[in-house]
Design a protein that fits this description.
By secondary structure, the chain is α/β, with parallel strands linked by helices. The protein has one domain: UDP-N-acetylmuramoyl-L-alanine:D-glutamate ligase. The chain is built from eleven helices and 15 strands. A nine-stranded mixed beta sheet has the order 7-6-1-10-11-12-13-14-15, sandwiched between helices. Helix 9 (277-290) runs antiparallel to helix 10. It is globular, with a radius of gyration of 19 Å.
Length: 337
């Protein structure tokens, strides 16, 4: 296998690694995705619609394991980074099965707990590669401070905070940040729109304590109150992070790093399913930083991981290896701005 660091020497500048090579802890949701497609779905005024009081035969219905923490952890592990996940699944359904799925990809599930009740579930409605998601968080809402085993912090040097919503989740997040800061652990905040909508003050606390903030354009404008991403990213930088990245779908990513703002375009691919695309982007960025990429080159690598994710259905099917990404970047073309 061609190592990523060798590929950097061949095609892009190599910089001394700014993050040490220990392990990553991903904190957040594990969700079962039921993915539905139908030609009967329509879009009206940016709303996904289908007839009321009717029965629709789906063209396709599939199941995948998802959730922000699951998606990020499986992508990271497949790329080759040592990855731990802190989350919860239900005892009353197929929780153990979903843990096996994580382990198959290489994620370490020692810190995932089994809770009474059902694993979280999402109904994902796909239309032209884009999605509308209805979610029941299930066991994810029960993940609390008591589930945080301090020993994990001896095994990591980076912690990623993903979607956390419930009051129990907030207590866990506060404690995890406190423990990470005591040990000088690098913190990355990569929230969801749900967290922006329902836990804005707690999210701001997380961002104040993070070295990196990654979110999409809509999230960035909503949490900051700004009307455009260029203004939003500047306000996000005021929280004190070293690097802020705002992803912009097909328009690439906007990055603010040490007062320098730059854009990285997306790769040209045929989009099949955007589910998990943002999570795979974050995984790619972290993996690249672990191997010495500059922020600009790390974002290019992250964009390549995301591109390879969205050309297949589901969030955790056909995940790319490090070598897959390196080979893709040799010939892939960027979309024109």
């Amino acid at each position: 296998m061609l190592s990523i660091s060798r590929a950097i020497h061949i095609s892009m500048p190599f910089e001394e690694c700014s993050i040490s090579h220990k392990g990553v802890l991903v904190v957040g949701g594990i969700i079962v995705d039921l993915i539905a497609r139908s030609e009967k779905f329509k879009v009206v005024n940016d709303n996904l619609c289908f007839p009321f009081d009717s029965k629709i035969t789906l063209d396709q219905l599939s199941q995948d394991t998802g959730g922000s923490a699951h998606n990020l952890a499986t992508n990271l592990a497949e790329l080759g980074t040592t990855t731990y996940i802190l989350g919860s699944v239900g005892k009353e359904d197929h929780g153990e099965e979903y843990l096996r799925n994580l382990r198959i990809h290489g994620a370490i599930t020692k810190y995932v707990t089994l809770k009474e009740g059902l694993t979280g579930m999402s109904l994902v409605f796909l239309y032209n590669g884009e999605k509308t998601v209805l979610t029941s968080r299930g066991a994810n809402a029960l993940l609390g401070e008591e589930d945080l085993n301090p020993e994990v912090f001896d095994k990591i040097d980076t912690m990623v905070l993903t979607s956390l919503i419930s009051q129990e989740n907030m207590a866990l997040m506060k404690k995890a940040i406190e423990e990470a800061k005591k040990r000088g652990i690098y913190i990355i905040t990569n929230p969801s729109m749900s967290m922006v909508n329902h836990r804005p003050e707690e999210l701001k606390h997380a961002m104040h304590n993070s070295q990196v903030i990654i979110m999409n354009g809509k999230e960035s404008m909503l949490i900051t109150g700004e009307k455009d991403v260029d203004s939003a990213i500047k306000k996000l930088k005021d929280y004190g992070a070293e690097t802020v990245i705002v992803t912009l779908d097909v328009r690439g990513a906007l990055v603010l790093d040490n007062e320098r703002t730059f854009r990285v375009p997306s790769y040209k691919v045929k989009v099949v399913d955007t589910t998990g695309g943002g999570d795979s982007f974050t995984a790619g960025f972290i993996h690249a930083k672990y191997h010495g990429y500059s922020n600009e080159e790390a974002v290019k690598f992250a964009s390549a991981v995301a591109a390879l994710n969205i050309v297949t259905p589901g969030a955790s099917t056909d995940l790319p290896s490090e070598n897959d990404v390196v080979e893709f970047m040799k010939t892939a073309e960027f979309l024109e701005a």
